[in-house]
Amino acid sequence: MAFFLGIDGGGSKTECMVGNETAVLGWAGSGSSKIARVGVEAAGAALREGIQRSCAAAGLAASQISRTCIGVAGVSQASSVAAIRGLLGEIVAGEIVVVGDTEVAHHAAFDGGEGVVVISGTGSIAWGRNRQGETVRAGGLAPATGDPGSGEWIGRTAVELVLLASENGHSPAMLHAVLKAWKLEDIQELARVLHGSPAPDFAALFPIVAVSSDPIAQRVLARAGRELSLLASDVLGSLWTAPTPVEVAMYGGVLENSSEVRDAFVADLSDRRPEARVAPGKRRPAEGALLMARQAARAKAPPETASA
Question: In terms of C-beta density within 10 A (0-12 exposed, 13-18 middle, 19 or more buried), how is residue 308 classed?
Fold first, then answer.
């Protein structure tokens, strides 16, 4: 029997799912495996931990995996793909397929069919495929330069508004929350951190913004939802020129953990594209990667084996 491994390698966490031709046998999570965020060594450690734990849950050894599919950001960069292949090649046996994180999420939601996924985690992106197989993306430029509505964007925007409020003589609750989260003494130290190198981890502020009742936090979360709606609307308008009912699946820690962002996203997209049908993704992205690993194996199998 063949065994497969699907991996969703995100900026904040990694999810690994092991299965055979028909069932999920084991699952495990670990830290970030995004090389651009944590470096090669930490990414490799996260992959090894997630793979070993998911294989142990399935009662298998990593050497029994016949095909692995991993979804990661930045697959347009050959060096990133080569680095991921190298790390995985030290852990698992069999063939390794590296695709974009949007592709595995889309497969999880739509089984390769038409639809749009909107992902907001550390970064953000909207990615769609229509019935003709055409694909379009919006966003996904990188947290430091774009990715509106992402965890990184939410943290950075909250800090910007906090500083603006402070300059105008206010002392918002969010200011104290940011100082506490980053273990800083005062706003002067905050200013030094913001101008220092490396840049602070703005995405780490998302959890405190998400639970804050401060008006600044509420404004930022609502705006994040509207920014994500713009990304989805761009993709919908590019792939479906005439009003057509289209499913839009939501993924990522921001949309999963903030009802304010989620509600604002759904409401704004409903106004812009009433034909869009928005819902949470029906499977985890790691399962989408697992499905892609299975399907790739079937496509390469001899006809009598593939149809068995």
Answer: exposed
Is residue 263, in this structure, part of any structural domain at all?
A: no
Tokens of 120: 């907001």
User: Coil, strand or helix: which one is 190?
Assistant: helix
DSSP-derived secondary structure letter, 1: -
SS3 state of residue 11: coil
Q: Are 288 and 17 in contact (CB under 8 A)?
A: no
Instruction: For residue 80, give the H/E element and its range.
Output: helix 78-89
Which residues, 6 or more positions from 239, have their beta carbon under 8 angstroms from its beta carbon? Answer: 116, 128, 129, 130, 134, 135, 136
CATH number at residue 33: 3.30.420.40
15 inside domain: yes
**β-strands 276-280, 246-251 pairing:** parallel
Q: Which pLDDT does position 306 carry in this prediction?
A: 39
Does any domain span residue 182?
A: no
pLDDT digits (tens, 9 = 90+) for 22-79: 999 999 999 999 887 888 999 999 999 999 999 999 999 999 999 999 998 777 677 8
User: What torsion, rounded to 10 degrees, do the Cα atoms 108, 123, 99, 266 define?
Assistant: 30
pLDDT band at 296 (very low <50, low <70, confident <90, very high): confident
Number of structural domains (the chain) is 1
3 state SS of 200: coil
- 85 vs 9: CA distance, rounded Å: 13
Residue 53 belongs to domain spanning? 3-108+284-306
Tokens of 173: 């609750």
Q: In percent, how much of the chain has pLDDT > 70?
A: 95
Strand partners, 128: 116, 136
